[in-house]
Fold this protein.
Amino acid sequence: MYKIAILNTTHFENKGSMGRIEGLISCLEQTIPGCEITILHRYFKQDEQNLSQQLVAKYNSLEIIEHPWYRESNSSIMTVMGSLVRYIFLKFRKASLKSQLQQYDTIVDLNLIEPDKCTARVDLEDLVGNLLTLLNISSANITDKPMIVCSATIGPFASSFLRNVAKRVLNEVDLITLREHYSKDYLYHIGINKPETVLTADLAFLLEPPDMSEIPAILDQIEVSLADRPLVGIGPTAMMDPSLPREEYIKFMADISEYLISNKGATIIYIAHTYQDRDIAEAVYKEINNKEKARILPFELSAEETKGVIGSCDLFICSRFHALVASTSLGIPTIGIVAYSRNKFHGIIGNMMGQEDYLIDIDSNFKYNAYLTKLKDKINEILKNQSSVSDELKERYKYVRKQTLLNGELIKEMIDKGHSGDYEN
């Protein structure tokens, strides 16, 4: 029976992270039946009383334990300092760390090595976060088992220091699977050429929603009916480009909500897809006048329940990436407002899912009235072509699903090489 370790997971309250985790578990269960999966979780203490228990109850093959050295605390500085001290200590005691990881047939790193902000400047938060991710991969490279970076977006790095660290660390892994073409080209460009690199797809595409028969009861909680058509989901994000300040962004989303309510007769559901976005969703709701035609989806819903609600919408407008993965995978006509990590939005939603025409970039060219008009035009266009857009998304998803499952097939191939003696670290 194969044993697989998953390293470096993020907070399960981020529904995108939960979607990726559940997608990987589903992928492994389909491609490596009977495997045992262990998550070495960074947020072990924060999640163990609730979300971790729910996940373990759902998947019999799963165990969640504490990460060997990475610990989250209330302070970012304490998180970094404490984690680095434990990392250095374990690096000096290689035997201890190696014995902990050696029991697994392969080690899979699930984090992403990417700056979230659309800027060419070195950002200290991104630099530290990406450095810790790379150290995490480096610490797992001490075993003689295959080390896999899975379904990642990598780069660009504004810091030459980080580029050099990435080149050294990533050239020591055995396989890198990537979510979009940009990362594959970028790795080659910065000299990461020793591991096999394969284009797959984002693991969250495999997150399954609940049966549609369960959705009416969920909507009843917010006094919305499936008969309230058109039903429009709106997912704001706190991670907005500096070109659009928070208060102006709130007004922008409220103005488009009012347009949908007044001109389309829409019922709006505001959906926060991460814990960071709860406040901004509430702020947009408070800004609109027609509150009787809008509701806020309870954040406490699971990632799969949230995806189910998104799947009941006629239109989804969103600034958060993995919420767009949820909507497009279910064939829901979707408009993405892109304010960070443009490579993954355009590479995955734009290119893989064929929705480039329905992505609107927020950048230094932002002009309020012009962008508001542009978004209204896109709404009219996508509603006019609702059926054909939905059909295209469903057809694209068939291919993307196969590409996502390829992650598991490649992991199995790596394990089999190790068991046959063909694998060399």
Remarks:
- The chain has two domains: 3-206+399-420, 212-329+334-384.
- The first strand starts at residue 3 and ends at 9.
- The radius of gyration is 22 Å.
- The first helix runs from residue 15 to 31.
